[in-house]
Amino acid sequence: MSGPSVNSFFLGESSGISFSISSVDEEAGKLQLANCNGGERAGDWNLNVTSGTSTSKVTISSTRNLQLCLPNATDCCPTPLCVVETLQVLACRGSVIVAHLLIQAEIYANSSFAGNVSENATIIPNQVFQPLGPCPCDLTAGACDVRCCCDPVCTSDLKQLFNGSCFTGVFGGDVNPPFDQLCSSQSMEYTPDWFPFLCVQSSIDNTPFLGYFYHGSTSTPRVPSFKIPLQTSPGKLFTGYTQGDPIITEENEYFTIPQQSMAGQCVGNAPVAYLQDFDVRCLTTLASYKEGLPHGVRINSGTGDFIQQNVIYRTITDRGKFITESESLHTEALCQNVTFVEHYTFIWKDENIEQINVTVFLGSLCPGEILTQRFTVEFLGLESSDATELFGNPGYQVGRPVRAANMNASDTFGSLNIWQPAGRGLCTSATYTPVLFGLDSLSGCLLEVGINEDCSLLRGKVTEELNSLIQATHVGKRDNSSYSDLNDWVEIIRLDPFNSDTNVSTGSLKGICPDIPANLNIHIIFAEVGAVQGIPWQEILAVQISYSTVIWQFQCGLICENSISFLPITASVQFIKVPAQPPIPMTRYQINYTEFDCNRNDVCWPQLFYPLTRFYTGEPYPHCLAKGLSLAFLLVLAAIMSNPWFSKFWNSSL
């Protein structure tokens, strides 16, 4: 056993069976004569039996204190190996021994810290004179760490077990190793002739490994808080919301609405973030349907006041848009009235919420039906009716739809969408959802294709389905781009799947078509060009659309009949962030003379006077300035004394 208790099991009928424990004398070198006259306690050991129908659990536990002894302490472990003992457990029916068990107990002292934690401040020693950790491998307080020969707790007997495998280097306690400039150091493979004249004669306790890394200071323990930093008492002011903060209810809890997780599943208790719109759809059935947060919950406005939700209930008119599948027939008596759609509109001003309007659409859900619930959240500024700006910020915010325009049409309004599959995932029944700024996405649908499909017509059909997602020629640079100003828009760069230089195979084999443009790739390049009241100002710089081709092959079993196969087509959106300003190109000097590049060489001549600048923090600036002035004085003095007229003046004065 390696702990203070051990369990064993006695198999068989336990009625009429008595259990006893005894300690074995190891000094005699043999077992004592077993008898059934023992009890359930032997020294520091207790025996506990839990009887069952056909099995009995036998527990042997130690009552000894396993803490290492402190000076002048009793009832503790004098050595790390605290208990070495052999125990014998007997199961008897009357005076007849039915079973016996031998236990070899070797228990080490508890190495965890059991003292009182001090709330006093910790004084950090000055790193100029002594290292912060003289024995870095000493990781356990009050216990000997294996292979840590500098651990003061390790006795000489314990060190003999790992004396040949001690940790080396700084981790093993060699925090002040001899440096190469020391005269007594022999670590250099090649010693120049001038080394004895320029070497350093110094004590090993004064090494460059100490340095001015940290000056002695006071570190006060900080207790982390796991509570929401909310102040709701009338005498204290609430600091207000900033973008991304969770909205808080009157009960000091998160205001939650179902949202999609990173795995694509809906989470019912996801908190709503301030100034972050979203539009999600969640699948549910009548068996798994759960009501969300009650609409009577009041919301903290941001100033410590609470506002009530303005709720309007309506009845859904077209259930077919939300009921995607029916597994079985149902009766009206088993149907329930549930929530189909919830629209939340938050009216905000500065850092506070002024009003909350909720529109709830209710409908009937029956057993066996799958419901697609929709939840939307939109933040509208009090001084703006279309939510185009956040704190006067004209840039895009994450989660906002990307604005598109068709400049070739009389109605310039355009759209940039991806698919929202429903039902069987067919392209004919799929709906569209707008591309949201800053959110990479991938969507697709299935296109029905026959075995006798003409490859050229199939390419045109797939291209038409993909182009239906992009009903635009330009994309707005900002969220408030004006349709009347062409400078507010960037033209969409289209890379056609086929051009005059590409030889497209017509496909001579039946049921196989190469070069099918089944993947649409939308790359949106944006940059952070500034900030308005701490909120990033993000603009779209360019948009590129390209296609990826695949080889389509009709999928069939042993016999290919004139049936229908499916071709999956996809559309992906990727947002690429680039610097607002292009990086400064390297000069010809930096390209050719790489030996002066400080990032590539150990010697950096451009930073020769770096210790005299404010960027150097190795030691206090007055010390560096004094040393620099002293060095400059010596250089000036040497230049004066090397001048010929100084020699003439010196000789004439003598």
TrEMBL record:
Q: Where is the Tectonic-1-3 domain?
A: 239-380, 395-578
- This protein's UniProt keywords: Cilium biogenesis/degradation, Glycoprotein, Signal
Tell me which residues make up the Tectonic-1-3 N-terminal domain: 111-219
Q: What GO CC annotations are associated with the protein? A: MKS complex
Keyword Glycoprotein assigned: yes
Q: Name one Pfam family in it.
A: DUF1619_N
Quick one: a GO biological-process term for this protein?
A: protein localization to ciliary transition zone
Tell me which PANTHER family the record gives: TECTONIC FAMILY MEMBER (PTHR14611), TECTONIC-2 (PTHR14611:SF6)
Q: Which family does it belong to?
A: Belongs to the tectonic family.
Q: Subunit structure of this entry? A: Part of the tectonic-like complex (also named B9 complex).
* Name of this chain's protein: TECT2 protein
